[in-house]
Amino acid sequence: MQQTPFRAAIFDLDGVLVDTAKYHYRAWKRLADQLGFDFSEHDNERLKGVSRMRSLEILLEIGNVTVLESEKPVLADRKNRWYVELLGTLDPSALLPGALACLGALGDGGIPVALASASKNAGMVIEKLKIAPLFRYVVDAATIANAKPSPDIFLDAARGLGVDPQSAVVFEDAPAGIDAAHAAGMIAVGIGTAEALPAADMIAADLSRLDFRCAGGTLVLGLL
Ligand code: BG6
Ligand code: MG
């Protein structure tokens, strides 16, 4: 793990700041049920950090189901409607341990913070969680040409914050996100387990296990 202090922090959303993975799973499972095959929580791991359309393709692969190209957007939209329905009751109680505290510490310490989520629902989710004002820049997933593990989303976040990519640290729960951060020249903190995220530069079960020490516009990270 790099000892140089960081000048910016970039967060993934689903699985890092909020536990929405269970809602994504329930909505995809409903679609799988409708299409007539089983879809387990274990299978769902493959969908984490992956774009909506690519997730659909993986789901269809798991079910060994072939559909017309023209049907794919219809199925992806149906899943998204169910997902958004499940988000109806989302409120700040869904924030994961340490999320609010670390965003607060970074804000107080003058460290610019960006959100870099593949989710096109990210804007709505952070509004519901009441954390939107804590981000200086929120990437619009719809404008990112290449999904994680391509570095595009994190490079856009660094550009939006006006910092060098190498000076930013990324918090991610998906292997594709860790790879994307590395491809962008960034240090990646894995939120989860070392087994699930072997390429991460540092691992924490959740954000509450990390020590965010900010001074003079720089951040030094430690494990608690
Ligand atoms: C990621 C999730 O954050 O966003 C994926 O980890 C999800 O599971 C992706 O597929 C896209 O989300 P959405 O809300 O645009 O369908
Ligand atoms: Mg995630």
CATH H-level superfamily of the largest domain: HAD superfamily/HAD-like
Distance between the termini: 15 Å
Please give the order of strands in the largest beta sheet.
3-2-1-4-5-6
Order of SSEs, N→C? EHHHHHEHEHEHEEEE
Relative helix content: 25-40%
Approximate strand percentage: 15-25%
Bound molecules: 6-O-phosphono-beta-D-glucopyranose, magnesium ion
Count up the helices: 8
What is the average per-residue confidence, as pLDDT, rounded to a whole number? 96
- CATH fold annotation of the largest domain: Rossmann fold
Under the CATH scheme, which class of the largest domain? Alpha Beta
Largest sheet: 6 strands, parallel
**Count of DSSP E strands?**
8
The name of the CATH architecture of the largest domain is: 3-Layer(aba) Sandwich
**How does the helix and strand content classify structurally?**
alpha/beta
Comma- or semicolon-separated keywords:
single chain, 224 residues, alpha/beta, Rossmann fold, DNA polymerase, domain 1, 6-stranded parallel sheet, two-stranded antiparallel ribbon, 37% helix, binds magnesium ion
Summarize the structure in words:
This protein has 224 residues and is an alpha/beta fold. The protein folds into two domains: 8-19 and 94-223, HAD superfamily/HAD-like (Rossmann fold), CATH 3.40.50; 21-89, DNA polymerase, domain 1, CATH 1.10.150.240. The protein has eight helices and eight strands, in the order βαααααβαβαβαββββ. The chain has helices spanning 21-35, 41-44, 52-63, 72-86, 99-108, 122-129, 152-161, 175-183, and strands spanning 8-11, 113-115, 137-138, 168-172, 187-191, 202-204, 210-215, 218-223. The chain has a six-stranded parallel beta sheet, with helices on both faces. Helix 6 links the parallel strand 2 (113-115) and strand 3. Helix 1 (21-35) packs across helix 4 (72-86). It is globular, with a radius of gyration of 17 Å. The two termini are 15 Å apart. The structure holds 6-O-phosphono-beta-D-glucopyranose and magnesium ion (MG). The site of 6-O-phosphono-beta-D-glucopyranose has 17 residues, from helix 3.
